[in-house]
Amino acid sequence: MRKNTNIAHFFIIFINLFLWAIPIFYLFKLQVLSAEKNKEIVQSFESPKSILPKRGDIYVQDKNGNLYLVATTQKIYDVYFNPFKTKDLNKELNLIKSILKIEEYIKISNNNSFIIAKNLDEITVNKLKKLKLDSLFFEEKYKRIYLENNFLSPVLGFTILDDNGILTGVYGIEKYYDEFLRGEPGLYYGIGEVQNAIPGSDLILNIDYFVQKYAERILEEGINEYQAEGGLIVVTTNDGKILAIAEKPNYNPNEYNKVKDQKIFLTRLTQNYEPGSVLKSITFFAGLNSKVFSPEDKYFDSGYVEANNWKIYNFDKKGRGYITLQEAFEQSLNTGAIYIEKLLGHNRFLNYLKQFRFDQKPLIDLPNLTEGNIKNLEKPQRDLRDINFYTASFGHGISISPAHLLMAFNTFANDGDMYSLLIVDKIINYNQKIKQQKTIKITHIGDKEAHKRFKDLLEKVTLNGSGKKAKTLGFKIGGKTGSAYIPKEGQPGYSDDVINSYVVIFPLTKPRFIILVRIDKPNQGLAMVTTVPLAKKMIDFLINYYSVPPDNEKEIFDHYSTNSPN
After folding, report:
1. What's the pTM value of the predicted model, to 2 decimals?
2. What is the pLDDT of residue 114?
3. Are 239 and 439 in contact, with CB atoms under 8 Å apart?
4. Does residue 544 lie within any of the structural domains?
5. CB count, 10 Å around CB of 373?
6. Helix (H, G, I), strand (E, B) or coil at 562
7. Distance CA 352, CA 329 (A)
């Protein structure tokens, strides 16, 4: 009987030990054998995982409001492989190799995952997922795609990944509107709780797809013909909305890392240069508005002006004798601009440059803007020289950007109302709320009569001067050419290379468009040869594309009546 009691006691003790051993072993397994795995699980609960936002798309449009996608975001994946999750290492590697090109031999040094492929598209990843392998892991990210490659590239800019894996804009529209485009990341807490990412807003640009395409095409033709190193064609409406910005050379933002000269990332539209005789427009307008001269007034052109022991010549070093100031403008004579600057006086001339904001940054929705440089004219009184003001009167010794010039000519087109320039038309956020962008009226310069008389001068350049090749039957075209030598880099003086510019307003009766053409370092010819013909092509295209009514229908009728066969 006692023996049976002992057996019972031992049995009870054994059962108790066994029951205690189960949780002890389980705890040992959790804390030792599966410590690394459980650590990852705990961390997944403790550290929320970021969900990347989709960057907004960028569109251009046409005259009918149809949209054309030029920049979008595509999901891509990095693929990780964990050999210790395999059931049959060789078999799984062979399955993976049937889809991916990976190394024949993978060194297994620890139980961590390692990357076997980067930046795979969704189609390839779906093929891998169909294998249903526990050894494969996928990390999702986004890649920016520019569907038209080089199209509008210096203005669009490009994106890079920041430290958090979010696409971030650098240069151009991508940078300026980055806070709208980038979106907001979400969070995944690992227990089924998700805070969704907020996609970035879409942008619709004022850029017209077909105007831009045509501008890029004719600019390339011009660059090839004159073996020039750079060029720019910009088309804006009279209230500052930009329809086209063509530049050469440009780059493919899908392959921005292949670009050797990073200067190409900065659009010429906002970079300063010495504009040359285009700036005579400001000088002559200032004179008209200040009533210091009339176009019919005459002066004696000796071909040069002396100042501070220097001689400043006309472009051809020829004198014309007594000549009207209208003829001086038509023929782009430096002596005529200097004559008017003298009538204005240095302080009043400088004040007009400042009214046109040439000492400030242009107002345009692009980053990396710089002020115009008129510091030569702002020195202490004892350091000021007449020659600096005389050369500035025809666009030398000071520098401004094409954007400054466009704002100035928009002012002429609008009888004194100055507007900002605008590339983006609308911002559309993820819930389709539309924010309409608008140009800003900045100021008013001059009186209406002065603007009317100045636009008459601009038309005379087309009829009788350097803009003759822009003549268009039935239309009043007004513009100004300019050529300027390029300053040497890092040393005083000028090189033998020039930049030719031409800015044109049309139709002058009711202005709708301003065109700026710039050709850098052509192998031959002044602006009348290199830039005016390109502007003429753009004028003809815009007239046909937008069905622009003529200023003078009778001129067209008379022309075809006279020249029609009997």
Report:
1. 0.87
2. 79
3. yes
4. yes
5. 17
6. helix
7. 18
Q: Give a yes or no: residue 37 inside a domain.
A: yes
Question: What is the domain range of residue 27?
Answer: 2-46
pLDDT 10s digits, 180-221:
999 998 887 766 677 888 999 999 999 999 999 999 999 999
How many other C-beta atoms are found inside a 10 Å radius of the C-beta of residue 456? 15
- What is the 8-class DSSP label of residue 245? E
Which pLDDT score is estimated for 244? 97
Give the CATH number for residue 463: 3.40.710.10
Torsion of CA 521, 526, 530, 534, to 10 degrees: 120
What's the pLDDT tens digit per position in 243-273? 999 999 999 999 999 999 999 999 999 999 9
DSSP H or E segment with residue 341 = helix 334-344
Could you tell me which residues come within 8 angstroms of residue 150 by beta carbon, excluding any fewer than 6 positions away?
Answer: 250, 251, 252
Q: What is the pLDDT of residue 552?
A: 87
Could you give the CA distance from residue 436 to residue 420 in angstroms, rounded to a whole number?
A: 15
511/239 Cα distance (integer angstroms): 10
pLDDT of residue 186: 85
Q: Which two tokens stand for residue 535?
A: 């502007």
254 φ, ψ to 5°? -70, -20
What's the whole-number mean pLDDT along residues 318-332? 96
Kindly give, in sequence order, each residue whose CB lies less than 8 Å from that of residue 48, ignoring residues fewer than 6 positions away. 187, 188, 189, 190
Q: Is the pLDDT of residue 147 over 80?
A: yes
Q: Which residues, in sequence order, are CB contacts of 85 under 8 Å at separation 6+? A: 133, 134, 135
Domain count, the chain: 2
Tokens of 174: 């991508």
Which pLDDT tens digit goes with each residue over 526-562?
A: 899 999 999 999 999 999 999 999 998 888 887 787 7
Asked whether residue 478 is assigned to any structural domain, the reply reads: yes
Residues forming a β-bridge with 426:
204, 436
